[in-house]
Amino acid sequence: MLERVETAEITLIRTESPRNTLQSLYQLRHDLEISLGAYWQQQNTSNAARIAFVMGQIRALIDLSQLPLASNREVGSQTGLFLLDILGRIKPIDAADLPGPDDLDDQSTAGFRLPGTPLRIVEVAEGDRAGEYLFSADTVHGAPRFFAGLATLPLRSSLAIKSWDDTGRQLAGPWIPTSWIAKLPDSLKRTLLDTPVWKILLVILFFVATGVALRVWHRILVDWLTDDPVKIVRFRILSPIAIMLAVLWLQHVFSFQVNTAGRFFELTESCLVAVFYGAATWAVWAMCRAFFDTIIVDPRLANQSLDDSFVRLVGRIIGVIGGVLILGYGAYELGVPVLSMIAGFGIGGIAVALAVRPTLENLIGGFILFLDKPVRVGDYCTFGDQSGTVEAIGVRSTQLRAMDRTQISIPNAQFADMQIVNWARCDTMLIRETLGLRFETDAEQMRHVLAKIREMLHSHPRIEAETIRVRFVGYGDSSKNVDLRIYAMTREWNDFYSIREDVLLRIDDIVEASGTGFAFPSQTLYWSRDPGLDAERTEHAHQEVATWRRQRQLPFPRFSSTALEGLSGKLKYPPPGSPDYFATNEELAEGGETLSADQPQEPDSERNPDEKPGKSGD
């Protein structure tokens, strides 16, 4: 029957006893006959609302607590019509034969069967209507079956109708005049899925028209939105809202104007409920994303202390939680036993925990990455044996772009446990080279090369002076090796390679200007007569060792403590000629010079002998 409910002056129901419940049904049957007759005489919204109100009162006499919310109204209305058909065909039942409020104390049972029928009026034991007497929940299934055996009997009614059920199926709202329905061919009045064929065709037409309207709206919305990111994130929610409004409008049309019934109503209502809650989930998701994206893209609301990816992740988590709750309620309205499923999760909690453990680990790993901040979106980093630029940190995984432009996806939990080298966080960038000079390079050439390289590096504006280290470090298989370790004052890779290139080219010029060159693996053959060992120097070495033996001063396996005391500090370092060398007055006098005020002096007894007069990074 019609499903729009408005207040009307109709006798209110009483359910405090089986007698009152049956009397209320009789009174509502009388009101329905009057309302339906008035509607046929004047088909308007007011009369249609009166019919809907009466049907709502009839539904209130039936225990519908076992039905899904989505089909509660329609199934309840159909069951009420079956009750009117049954009571209008069987022998009239006197309500006075049933217990009244004063008789309930003497009754030993909470249920009462109507004479000659399987219908029972029982006391509701729990819920919002506990203590009321209603037609039992079994009436929903028992009434249609019992009516099937009575369908051939005549119906007692003040209206010229053969069946309340058939009359309700053919009834439509004010938009569809009764005269039009009467002119339809019998083939369109036949029922399919408990609904006349003409109503099914009309529902399909409304579905198509609404789909076309939503498509046009979406195109208008896309064309209206510009490239402004703030406007896009704020108006993205309009599409799901339009779908929700369209579903509500269709529900009103189908239940109040078209008046679908039976299995077809359950089918269409289930589809509309599913679409509505799906759109509501989409709306919550879009709303969360719009809110948090607005924080990111709106310059008036931007907060530089917030990490964009972290804000987006929080928005997505809130959107997912809200969407799950909405979908759960929608499933409950469709009759899915959500509470039982949750209880089942409790029984199988161990299996569920094991199944979702990787997902939870990755979710926690994502939060660790945001809180600890080893990397941010846009940072170039090295992890394991791979390198890449961080593009996104999601709920489950982190996305990185490798040097070869491939995308690397790594679970957050695994990424958070790795040793991560974040190149974007370095304040300066290391240049480390080993210069191999030819073995023919003599000591003076080596000094010249080292001095000129240090001079160049100290003069370079992009090299950190305190970190310069250029040292002759040893002999290689084919070269004399110079270790170069300096830091370029940059944090950008392209700039770093430019600075290193400039430094290496300048070193190339210095080595060439010093008259030497870089070594490469080679062998040199010298064709000459071997002069043999120097006999005089060999004899001198033998005599000196013999003297050590006689004086018991052979320094093997170690020097004696007396010898070590005599050797301590005997060599001069830095060597004479160095700016850090401390020249004595005697040495200056031997050179024909006097000690000037700005020349370094030998440390006196009050000065720390290890103290340097200046700091050098070399």
Give a concise summary.
The chain is an alpha+beta fold and 618 residues long. The chain folds into 4 domains: 18-176, no CATH class; 200-347, no CATH class; 357-424, SH3 type barrels (Roll), CATH 2.30.30; 426-513, Alpha-Beta Plaits, CATH 3.30.70.100. Helices cover 50% and strands 10% of the residues.
Polypeptide structure, described:
It is rod-shaped and about 150 Å long. It is about 50% helix and about 10% strand. It folds into four domains: about 20-175, no CATH class; about 200-345, no CATH class; about 355-425, SH3 type barrels; about 425-515, 2-Layer Sandwich (Alpha-Beta Plaits). Mean pLDDT is about 80; it is low at about 5-10, about 300-305, about 595-600 and about 600-618. It is of the alpha+beta class. It has helices spanning about 20-40, 45-60, 70-85, 140-150, 165-170, 180, 185-190, 195-225, 230-235, 240-260, 260-295, 310-335, 340-345, 350-370, 410-415, 445-460, 495-515, 535-550, 560-565, 585-590; strands spanning about 110-115, 120-125, 135, 190, 195, 380-385, 385-395, 395-400, 405-410, 420, 430-435, 470-475, 480-490.
